[in-house]
Design goal:
By secondary structure, the protein is an alpha/beta fold. The protein contains 4 helices and 3 strands, in the order αβαβαβα. α3 links the parallel β2 and β3. It is globular.
Length: 107
């Protein structure tokens, strides 16, 4: 099944250094989102939370939703990356994380 396949990959891949968890900034995390995060925590897999579609919200809606989402998943508000593919917002931050992980692998 899909769950066992992805579970095995996440748990046993020696080349996997981080998972980017994409969450829609307009809605609360789903139960499946929360299950994925629980899995990542349980197996001590590094991850980054990326809130997508931030261009679809005004500033106050985004701050409100960011607070709700981070509270729902139990992380700090500073521990998420706000992104917009339309506006290319903070995509460089993601590339920097990838680059740092790759550099760390080479050490």
């Amino acid at each position: 099944s899909w769950q066992s396949l992805i579970g095995s990959y996440l748990q046993f891949s020696s080349s996997l250094k981080r998972v980017f968890v994409l969450l829609d900034s307009r809605i609360k995390p789903t139960e499946k989102d929360k299950q994925m995060l629980s899995y990542l925590y349980a197996f001590q897999i590094s991850f980054s939370i990326v809130l997508t579609k931030t261009d679809k919200l005004n500033r106050s809606e985004l701050q409100k939703n960011k607070k709700i989402i981070t509270s729902e998943i139990g992380i700090g508000a500073d521990d998420v990356i706000l992104t917009s593919s339309q506006k290319k917002q903070n995509l460089e931050d993601i590339w920097n994380i990838v680059e740092n992980d790759l550099n760390f692998m080479g050490e």
